[in-house]
Known about the structure:
Layout: H1 5-17, H2 20-27, H3 31-45, E1 50-53, E2 56-59, H4 61-88, E3 94-99, H5 101-104, H6 107-116, E4 123-128, H7 131-140, E5 145-149, E6 157-165, E7 167-171, E8 192-194, H8 200-212, E9 218-221, H9 225-233, E10 239-241, H10 243-247, E11 254-257, E12 264-272, H11 279-292
Helix pairs in contact: 1-2, 1-3, 1-4, 2-3
GO molecular function, one term: sequence-specific DNA binding
InterPro entries: LysR_HTH_N, LysR_subst-bd, WH-like_DNA-bd_sf, WH_DNA-bd_sf
Organism: Leisingera methylohalidivorans DSM 14336
Amino acid sequence: xxxxxxxxxxFHAIVETGTxxxxxxxxxxxxxxxxxxxxxxxxQTRLKLFERSKGRLIPTPEAGVLFxxxxxxxxxxxxxxxxxxxxxxxxxxxxxxxxxxSMSFGFMPALIAxxxxxxxxxxxxxxxxxxxxxxxxxxxxxxxxxxxxMPLIHDGLEAHPxxxxxxxxxxxxxxxxxxxxxxxxxxxxxxxxVMGPEHMTHRRTREVFQQAGIPLKxxxxxxxxxxxxxxxxxxxxxxxxxxxxxxxxxxxGFISRPFRPRIxxxxxxxxxxxxxxxxxxxxxxxxxKQELAPYTAGRSSARx
Length: 304
């Protein structure tokens, strides 16, 4: 027996509304159309499905059994249709983003929350990790979009470069705050909180101090910008940090100043060359690039 879904849908609507008129309004088709679909269904099944009583259709016991089976199918297809509509309107789907740690404490959660505000059914996967791991995740398809530090070690990545100017974080009560711009000469003998020796900010800080003929006094080594800032807030020294951790730190206890010569960080927004982005991913990627634009070289030295 080959039953058409439209027949089952009409039957389902009649049971729910109790009338042909109600079913027609629910499905957006004519009353004769509903009556014809019901007639076809009863003829094919050889079952009497309704009794008429005072203008209403009363389901027979056979109709009650059939309705239990049909209900799951009809509601399931309704959910599929709504999911398609949501995806077309970019209201649903899955957003998969990974970023290096300094963005994960404020910048990225705020941006994702803003993006998701009008998408209540959006499923979100977000992780913070070291840059090499982020590249592996995007290559493998575990995440659609990543933000990492350079260099890229995989050929299969599409990269949108971001060159970010770092700033110097100093304790809030430091006498260094009287200077609008800080230099190696002004920082002679001042303890530094630094990343590991191979990190680009540490290497470049060493280089500018060497070029100025001034020793760099590294007092604390750590592995996350957030940790470095915590030591600054405790008054243990100063630190070269990217603007993401500085701009989204609400704890106070520090101020930041431009540092000269500039110390830059090369970063990139990455996607896979071999996997097309979902519609949701494309829209978020456009928003992410837009929000990162003010942090690019020459625009990130705001005084705080």
